[in-house]
């Protein structure tokens, strides 16, 4: 009652005192480095009026005499000033030693950072905005210990995120995104400029409240919002720039290729070269090679623009806050075809206090994107296309509409030229997402018991239109009639959450108890149809199924859908005593229709913390400003395994019986009936600040076991795998993040940070007769073995190349009847290591050749400020991972193709010429084509991730306080990458490089304006 | 206090929320978008043909590599595709590498089909369990018998390639594997017995007389497979009996035009006992069920119908075969079986004995398609060639809509003759009559008192390039000299393919198959 009266009184006074308002301005700086602090919250105490500081730490606020202003900022001690007659109030905020006030967002609530017992890393908006990318999570690359980001170069495609290694084989490894309290599997609808903070929840105890969707880590994103009593703030953020392919693989040129062909021992290949000479003429420099020298990568690549613009306004009145934002992003792909991404977003966020106890809010995003998918096969074809083939061939008179050259006209098996597919295919996707949510929050007992209900619906449609235009290049490369494939895919995901939160303190005991339920309904419907022979195919306006030959739809119309539900109840206890002893405990009970074998699963977790620095005996310790020891344990269930059918299912088919299409069906002979994998994780951590808070250090060590691991059991006899709960896997690692900030003088300051991550992934148990499971394809074997990392590359170890006949004759393994003799080994062939020394190279000599997961990764950043200039440099890298160079390996399927220059130059061509590459002839032999260490290469890299130079033009410089502040930035994203892998790009998602879209370097210029 | 009261009210409200939420729980049991095999209405007996069509679809949809790898080792044909697929060329030279992807692919293709066929048979059994009308009970018996024939055919191809294999008789694969690897003789006996089981339920018709499943297998297909299995067992009397029964039915006759037999006019002819069916349904676009014949096609040609696609130049008839045919004056069968390129003709003429060739040897086919030079091969396989003027208008892919004949009456006749010349007896037909019937169609003069050698020559001439018949005949007869041609040396240990490494890693197989 008392509070209510005082509130009323205050309201009364504030109304009465309108006439006495003053305008106050000032600048807020940080004590430690003297730098202005942007974004400091300024609130008039006892009211909801407030503002924030601008880029230069400046603010203006209207206030009544005698009122108190509170200045608060994450990581700093809050200061309160009573206004008397000042018109300028400059504030110096002190670092909050124990960071007691800093709050982190956790599931269904917030928690003081000091009370956190799990492993949570938070990234601020400044760091996110530096990365020019359509996807916000790309900005995490190299910044968060324990988080691996594998970039995707294709415009509009999401990077792969792995939090603490790979905990599931079959389930996805994508984390759960929680954006302003709502759950998403993907956040391609968010614009970077809208992000306030990103928090990464890494350990099971932090995640467990989210249940089975959070098994791969949870990334909580808070977007920017207005504040109560804040004048409208208009902002514009924009950048524009270009992308350029990096480290392009050098392919063998015409001369090197021709030499390889002559040395191959294959008469056919020599004839192909001669055909090329006949068709395209002789080179004047070297008459033995054709007068063509095509660098296919150069041909298919281009410099591509990228740009982003966003404009918005945010603010609030006494009882409401709002923000409205529109943003536009556009990016072309570096593949020279219709390959681009364009996104237009509108977003609004409104929150209203209906009474002092009841708050409602709503949030809506409409994201409208158009994406033109690349023909990824082009990366593969450009690697294989022979350099003695030009792009165009004017002598190919039959070709229409464009006289592309065609390798089959020289005798090669395939057309090879990637351009017909790039030119005559058009793959459009229209991705539209409507994400809406609303909530109602009611204080049942003010300041103690709160009820919140929220409902969200995320409705997405993806309209695909794949157009195939007719063309004729050669008998091998032609499309007689056009066709259009249309797909309409709709996804609907509804969540209804209800929570009750009780907060109280009893003396030195602080307590928060949460109980809640979550209900989810997820459905999808996939519809597609293909029609051929489109009338007026030359005009995009007729790219509709309506113009297709109606007789062609038969057997080309499909629809499939599914819908499932899940429901969970959960509870959490947060308890602290004397701000020293911390306990967090969570339990969740969850049901999911996709697991008919075991619908319900219960997962508990607990975390303990000890803030040592708050103990009396630490009071005079000069070293530690803050020290907390943390330990947590928790279980998570994995719900991302896809639906179990639980029974045999039917698939329909059509075959020709007497020239009549005849329907039939087949029942599966195998089916999935899975239970959820259970992930169990123990985490130990230390959080500390030292040297007058200059050094901030977080150390975590975790052991994460996945039980009932789902693995693809190969069903013997049929070439099928069936998923089954038949293994266990462990990930463990150490994560260290350190940051040092220092202020040198009034003009200069710097901060330097770094993080390292170790990862050891291993299969700890496999329930199989053989003691292993084979994965990958038979020709490129990967294997799951106890004690080895998941999907380890598995094959023979190359021990050199035979240099002369004597060496072949002297090697017992080369003379063995069973294996080597029938391969007729000669100099220039690989020597394989006889692992078991039994004199035979056979299956028993295969060993693990490495893993695609980096065992060590690191990131670092340096920020230097001088007056209005800021320079930041971020680096990242990884070691210990391998890449299967499948481009080289696919010689097993066609061997008359080009090869990279490295291979061509270093090939064995006589004694002493190479001990690592086979001869041109040997390249074609099965003996040298088997899965071996030759194809499995080191994937480590070091990268300069981002360099940004920024200059802030103070409003004053532009003519006064009412002028906008402007910030200019120049950014180079991934300008330099150093690696030894013989491919374009060491970032290969699953370690198998066949047609990975390379990740370009990006150079941009940006402007931010705030009024 | 008031607060608390209000609180209780609201708590009650919330509890009712929870009740609503919990009532959604039975939704967890729903499975949208999935048709469980158990949910099929097996009482609709007329639908029992659907799983049978599924079984045919499994057998018809063959990988391009299947017929090529099966046949490549014979002295009738070379790998072709020079410069490409070196391990296939090595296989042709009897150099085997069990890591080669093709071996594993074919293993998986055939075994996968066996399980699909068995799954179809078990589904038909379910229909039969629910059927009440006599007509449907019988029909289910017939359909299940058809599945046995298809399963027999796939087991037969597997065992020919690898000798000792697993026999799979039900979809409970783990149980089937427990029975272990069976020797080739056991597998062939199993196939023979399986055919005996099936025969009583199968239609007493030619495949092209069937109205329910046109071109589907019949009693005679089963007899043919039984004969082939017994031939592998060198049980020649068994061969004579089975082939004799087919002959005595008087249902089959040789298609008069040997050349057209392998083209569209010869599809599902009275000669056909088993044929893989493909079609583009005579539509210029739209869905088609085609086999990929491109590997058999020339990589360079000038088709009579412009725009028809060329092929990859694999599967090249051997010079040995061509010379053998020229020596015999076997014109019709030679020009049907072999497509010549100018380079191939030159190569032939380099041999002084063939310096002047009969004028029917030309790089222009009877339908006017001109085979140009291409480095991959010197000759193309005519039996896998569909003239460009037989392509459906609008279709350009090589061999679109062409069927692939598996067993034909000529092979039955020649197996019959072979059995008789190996000492078996039969009242159905004499060896002379059988051989002369085959020769008669292609205008070859009659023989009398044919010897086993002559029968084998006749098989060579008639059945070259078809399903490895020649190779498997030669290894059965241990006639390694014939296989040691053009610089090759064949030895007994080369008869079988090694088990694919991927299968050795997966199955309880002996590591060395030879």
UniProtKB/TrEMBL annotation, chain A:
<comment type="similarity">
    <text>Belongs to the TonB-dependent receptor family.</text>
</comment>
<dbReference type="InterPro" id="IPR023996">
    <property type="entry name" value="TonB-dep_OMP_SusC/RagA"/>
</dbReference>
<keyword id="KW-0472">Membrane</keyword>
<dbReference type="Pfam" id="PF13715">
    <property type="entry name" value="CarbopepD_reg_2"/>
</dbReference>
<feature type="domain" description="TonB-dependent receptor plug">
    <location>
        <begin position="113"/>
        <end position="218"/>
    </location>
</feature>
<keyword id="KW-0812">Transmembrane</keyword>
<dbReference type="InterPro" id="IPR023997">
    <property type="entry name" value="TonB-dep_OMP_SusC/RagA_CS"/>
</dbReference>
<protein>
    <submittedName>
        <fullName>TonB-dependent receptor</fullName>
    </submittedName>
</protein>
<dbReference type="InterPro" id="IPR037066">
    <property type="entry name" value="Plug_dom_sf"/>
</dbReference>
<dbReference type="InterPro" id="IPR039426">
    <property type="entry name" value="TonB-dep_rcpt-like"/>
</dbReference>
<keyword id="KW-0732">Signal</keyword>
<dbReference type="InterPro" id="IPR008969">
    <property type="entry name" value="CarboxyPept-like_regulatory"/>
</dbReference>
<dbReference type="Pfam" id="PF07715">
    <property type="entry name" value="Plug"/>
</dbReference>
<keyword id="KW-1134">Transmembrane beta strand</keyword>
<dbReference type="InterPro" id="IPR036942">
    <property type="entry name" value="Beta-barrel_TonB_sf"/>
</dbReference>
<dbReference type="InterPro" id="IPR012910">
    <property type="entry name" value="Plug_dom"/>
</dbReference>
<keyword id="KW-0813">Transport</keyword>
<feature type="signal peptide">
    <location>
        <begin position="1"/>
        <end position="19"/>
    </location>
</feature>
<keyword id="KW-0998">Cell outer membrane</keyword>
<keyword id="KW-0675">Receptor</keyword>
From TrEMBL, chain B:
<keyword id="KW-0732">Signal</keyword>
<protein>
    <submittedName>
        <fullName>RagB/SusD family nutrient uptake outer membrane protein</fullName>
    </submittedName>
</protein>
<dbReference type="Pfam" id="PF14322">
    <property type="entry name" value="SusD-like_3"/>
</dbReference>
<feature type="domain" description="SusD-like N-terminal">
    <location>
        <begin position="102"/>
        <end position="224"/>
    </location>
</feature>
<dbReference type="InterPro" id="IPR011990">
    <property type="entry name" value="TPR-like_helical_dom_sf"/>
</dbReference>
<dbReference type="InterPro" id="IPR033985">
    <property type="entry name" value="SusD-like_N"/>
</dbReference>
<dbReference type="Pfam" id="PF07980">
    <property type="entry name" value="SusD_RagB"/>
</dbReference>
<keyword id="KW-0472">Membrane</keyword>
<comment type="similarity">
    <text>Belongs to the SusD family.</text>
</comment>
<dbReference type="InterPro" id="IPR012944">
    <property type="entry name" value="SusD_RagB_dom"/>
</dbReference>
<feature type="domain" description="RagB/SusD">
    <location>
        <begin position="271"/>
        <end position="483"/>
    </location>
</feature>
<keyword id="KW-0998">Cell outer membrane</keyword>
């Amino acid at each position: 009652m008392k509070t209510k009266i005082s509130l009323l009184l205050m309201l009364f006074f504030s109304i009465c005192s309108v006439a006495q308002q003053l305008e106050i301005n000032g600048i807020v700086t940080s004590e430690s480095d003297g730098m202005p602090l942007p974004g400091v919250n300024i609130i008039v105490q006892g009211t909801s009026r407030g503002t924030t500081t601008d880029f230069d730490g400046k603010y203006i606020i209207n206030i009544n005499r005698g009122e108190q202003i509170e200045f608060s900022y994450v990581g700093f001690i809050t200061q309160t000033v009573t206004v008397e007659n000042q018109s300028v109030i400059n504030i110096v905020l002190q670092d909050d030693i124990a960071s007691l006030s800093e709050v982190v967002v956790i599931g269904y609530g917030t928690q003081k950072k000091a009370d956190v017992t799990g492993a949570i890393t938070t990234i601020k908006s400044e760091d996110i905005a530096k990365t020019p990318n359509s996807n916000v999570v790309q900005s995490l690359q190299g910044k968060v210990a324990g988080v691996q980001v594998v970039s995707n170069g294709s415009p509009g495609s999401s990077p792969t995120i792995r939090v603490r290694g790979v905990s599931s084989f079959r389930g996805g490894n994508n984390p759960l995104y929680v954006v302003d309290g709502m759950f998403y599997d993907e956040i391609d609808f968010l614009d970077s400029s809208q992000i306030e903070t990103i928090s990464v929840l890494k350990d099971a105890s932090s995640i467990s409240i989210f249940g089975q969707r959070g098994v791969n880590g949870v990334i909580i994103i808070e977007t920017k919002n207005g504040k109560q009593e804040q004048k409208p703030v208009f902002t514009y953020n924009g950048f524009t720039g270009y992308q350029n392919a990096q480290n392009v693989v050098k392919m063998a040129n015409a001369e090197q290729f021709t030499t390889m062909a002559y040395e191959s021992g294959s008469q056919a290949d020599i004839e192909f070269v001669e055909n090329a000479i006949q068709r395209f003429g002789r080179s004047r420099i070297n008459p033995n090679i054709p007068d063509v020298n095509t660098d296919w990568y150069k041909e298919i690549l281009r410099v591509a623009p990228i740009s982003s613009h966003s404009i918005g306004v945010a603010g609030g009145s006494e009882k409401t806050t709002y923000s409205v934002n529109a943003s536009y992003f556009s990016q072309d792909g570096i593949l020279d075809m219709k390959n681009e991404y364009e996104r237009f977003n509108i977003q609004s966020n409104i929150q209203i206090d209906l009474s002092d106890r009841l708050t409602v809010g709503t949030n809506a995003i409409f994201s409208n994107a158009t994406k033109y998918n690349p023909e990824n096969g082009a990366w593969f074809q450009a690697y294989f296309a022979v350099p003695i083939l030009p792009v165009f061939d004017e002598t190919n008179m039959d070709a229409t509409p464009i006289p592309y050259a065609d390798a089959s006209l020289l005798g090669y098996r395939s057309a090879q030229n990637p351009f017909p597919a790039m030119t005559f295919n058009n793959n459009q996707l229209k991705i539209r997402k409507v994400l809406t949510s609303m909530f109602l929050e009611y204080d049942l007992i003010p300041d103690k018991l709160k009820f919140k209900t929220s409902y969200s619906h995320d409705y997405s449609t993806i309209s695909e239109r794949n157009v195939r235009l007719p063309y004729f290049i050669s008998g091998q490369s032609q499309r007689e009639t056009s066709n259009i494939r249309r797909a309409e895919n709709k996804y609907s995901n509804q969540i209804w959450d209800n929570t009750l939160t009780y907060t109280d303190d009893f003396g030195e005991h602080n307590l928060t108890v949460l109980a809640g339920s979550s209900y989810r309904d997820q459905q999808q419907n996939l519809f597609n149809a293909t029609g051929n022979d489109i009338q007026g195919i030359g005009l995009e306006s007729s790219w509709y199924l309506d113009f297709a030959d109606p007789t062609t739809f038969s057997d080309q119309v499909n629809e499939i859908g599914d819908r499932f539900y899940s429901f969970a109840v959960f509870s959490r206890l947060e308890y602290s005593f004397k701000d020293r002893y911390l306990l967090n405990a969570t339990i969740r009970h969850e049901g999911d229709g996709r697991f008919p074998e075991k619908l319900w699963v219960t997962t508990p977790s607990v975390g303990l913390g000890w803030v040592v620095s708050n103990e009396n005996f630490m009071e005079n310790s000069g070293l530690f400003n803050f020290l907390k020891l943390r330990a947590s344990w928790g279980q998570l269930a994995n719900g991302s395994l896809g639906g179990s059918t639980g029974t045999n299912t039917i698939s329909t088919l059509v075959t020709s019986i007497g020239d009549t299409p005849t329907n039939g069906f087949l029942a599966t002979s195998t089916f999935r009936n899975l239970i959820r994998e259970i992930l169990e994780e123990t985490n130990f951590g230390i959080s500390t600040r030292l040297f007058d808070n200059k050094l901030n250090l977080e150390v975590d060590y975790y052991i994460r076991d996945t039980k009932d691991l789902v693995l693809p059991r190969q069903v013997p006899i049929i070439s099928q795998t069936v998923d089954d709960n038949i293994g266990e896997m462990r990930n463990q690692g150490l994560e260290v993040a350190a940051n040092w900030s220092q202020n040198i003088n009034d003009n200069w300051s710097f901060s330097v940070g770094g993080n390292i991550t170790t990862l050891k992934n291993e299969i700890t148990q496999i329930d199989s007769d053989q003691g292993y499971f084979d994965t990958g394809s038979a020709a490129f074997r990967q294997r799951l073995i106890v004690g080895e990392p998941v999907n380890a590359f598995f094959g023979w170890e190359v021990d050199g190349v035979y240099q002369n006949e004597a060496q072949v004759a002297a090697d017992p393994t080369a003379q063995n009847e069973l294996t080597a003799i029938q391969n007729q080994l000669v100099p220039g062939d690989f020597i394989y290591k006889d692992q078991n020394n039994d004199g035979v190279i056979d299956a028993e000599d295969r060993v693990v050749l490495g893993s695609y997961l980096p065992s060590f990764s690191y990131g670092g950043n340096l920020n230097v400020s001088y007056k209005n200039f800021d320079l930041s440099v971020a680096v990242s890298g990884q070691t210990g991972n391998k890449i299967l160079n499948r481009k080289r390996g696919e010689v097993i399927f066609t061997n008359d193709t080009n090869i990279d220059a490295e291979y061509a130059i270093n090939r064995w061509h006589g004694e002493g010429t190479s001990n690592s590459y086979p001869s041109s002839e040997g390249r074609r032999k099965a003996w040298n084509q088997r899965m071996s260490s030759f194809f499995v290469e080191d994937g480590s890299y070091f990268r300069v991730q981002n360099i940004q130079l920024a200059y802030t033009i103070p409003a004053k410089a532009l003519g006064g306080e009412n002028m906008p502040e402007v910030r200019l930035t120049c950014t180079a994203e991934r300008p330099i990458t150093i690696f030894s892998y013989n491919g374009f790009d060491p970032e290969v998602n699953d370690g198998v490089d066949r047609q990975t879209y390379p990740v370009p370097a990006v150079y941009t210029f940006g402007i931010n304006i705030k009024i | 206090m008031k607060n608390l009261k209000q609180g209780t009210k609201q708590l009650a409200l919330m509890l009712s929320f929870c009740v609503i939420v919990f009532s959604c729980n039975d939704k967890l049991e729903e499975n949208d978008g999935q048709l469980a095999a158990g949910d099929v209405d097996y009482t609709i007996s007329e639908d029992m043909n659907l799983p049978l069509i599924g079984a045919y679809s499994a057998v018809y949809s063959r990988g391009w590599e299947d017929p090529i790898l099966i046949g490549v080792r014979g002295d009738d044909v070379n790998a072709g595709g020079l410069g490409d697929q070196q391990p296939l060329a090595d296989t042709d030279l009897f150099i085997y590498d069990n890591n080669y992807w093709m071996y594993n692919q074919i293993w998986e293709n055939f075994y996968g089909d066996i399980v699909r066929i068995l799954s179809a048979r078990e589904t038909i059994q379910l229909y039969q369990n629910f059927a009440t009308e006599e007509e449907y009970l019988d029909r289910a018996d017939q359909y299940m018998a058809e599945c046995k024939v298809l399963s027999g055919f796939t087991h037969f191809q597997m065992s020919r390639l690898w000798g000792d294999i697993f026999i799979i008789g039900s979809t409970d694969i783990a149980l089937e594997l427990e029975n272990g690897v069976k020797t080739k003789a056991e597998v062939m006996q199993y196939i023979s017995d399986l055919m005996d089981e099936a025969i009583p339920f199968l239609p007493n018709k030619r495949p092209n007389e069937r109205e329910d499943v046109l071109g589907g297998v019949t009693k005679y297909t089963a007899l043919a497979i039984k004969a082939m299995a017994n031939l592998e067992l060198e049980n020649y009397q068994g061969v004579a009996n089975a082939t004799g029964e087919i002959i005595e039915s008087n249902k089959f006759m040789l298609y008069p035009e040997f050349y057209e037999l392998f083209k569209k006019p010869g599809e599902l002819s009275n000669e056909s006992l088993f044929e893989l069916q493909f079609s583009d349904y005579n539509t210029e676009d739209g869905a088609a069920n085609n086999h990929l014949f491109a590997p058999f096609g020339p990589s360079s040609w000038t088709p009579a119908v412009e725009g028809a696609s060329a092929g990859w130049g694999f599967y090249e008839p051997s010079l040995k075969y061509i010379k053998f045919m020229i020596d015999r004056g076997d014109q019709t069968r030679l020009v049907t079986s072999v497509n010549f390129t100018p380079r191939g003709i030159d190569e032939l003429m380099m041999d002084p004995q063939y310096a002047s060739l009969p004028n029917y040897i030309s790089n222009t086919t009877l339908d006017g398609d001109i085979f140009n030079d291409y480095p991959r091969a010197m000759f193309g396989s005519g039996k896998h060639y569909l003239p460009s003027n037989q392509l459906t208008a609008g279709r350009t892919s090589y061999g679109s809509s062409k069927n692939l004949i598996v067993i034909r009456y000529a092979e039955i006749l020649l197996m019959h003759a072979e059995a008789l010349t190996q000492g078996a007896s039969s009242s159905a037909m004499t060896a002379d009559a059988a051989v002369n019937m085959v020769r008669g169609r292609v205008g070859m003069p009659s023989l009398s008192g044919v010897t086993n050698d002559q029968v084998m020559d006749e098989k060579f001439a008639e059945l070259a390039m078809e399903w490895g018949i020649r190779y498997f005949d030669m290894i059965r007869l241990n006639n390694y000299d014939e296989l040691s041609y053009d610089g090759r040396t064949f030895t007994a240990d080369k008869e079988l393919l090694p088990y694919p490494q991927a299968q050795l890693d997966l199955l309880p197989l002996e590591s060395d198959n030879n």
